[in-house]
Amino acid sequence: MTSERRLAILRFAFWAAVVLAFTMAVIPQPPQLPGAPSDKIQHIAAFVVLGGLATFAYPRTSPVYLGTGLSLFGAFIELVQYIPALHRDSDPIDWVADTAAAALVLIFLHWLRAKTRGNS
Q: How far is the C-alpha of 44 from the C-alpha of 103, rounded, in Å?
């Protein structure tokens, strides 16, 4: 598989995950997940996945830019959840969880990439 094809697949996966995360965050009655994880756990899991996918889908983009974009996306979700017709609860702490989860995975993967490049 060529690197261009791999990047195209990873970018498709990233944007599909963005659409899925947004959809699940704004539909009035999202499906119950196995094990009934708390809202914060769901936010953390979503943004860990988004951060990981973003790192591999956009390998030449600074983790700071990726983290900023993901943090803004988390804030946008919370703003949309303020719409009364959605019957969702907006919580600024969810945005903090989103930002922290994305930042931690971006930092870890950036560190791991630097470490593996240094050992080669």
A: 11
Amino acid at 14: F
Q: What is the pLDDT of residues 53-96, one digit of tens each?
A: 999 999 999 999 999 999 999 999 999 999 998 888 888 999 99
Please state, in angstroms and rounded to a whole number, the distance separating the CA atoms of residues 102 and 50.
7
pLDDT at 119 over 80: no
Helix (H, G, I), strand (E, B) or coil at 37: coil
pTM above threshold 0.85: yes
- pLDDT of 48 > 90? The answer is yes
Gap between the Cα atoms of 85 and 64, Å rounded:
34
DSSP 8-state secondary structure symbol assigned to residue 58: S
- Tell me the domain boundaries of the chain: 3-119
Distance CA(70)–CA(98), nearest Å, equals 8
- Write out 72-100 in H/E/C secondary structure: HHHHHHHHHCCCHHHCCCCCHHHHHHHHH
Residue length, the chain? 120
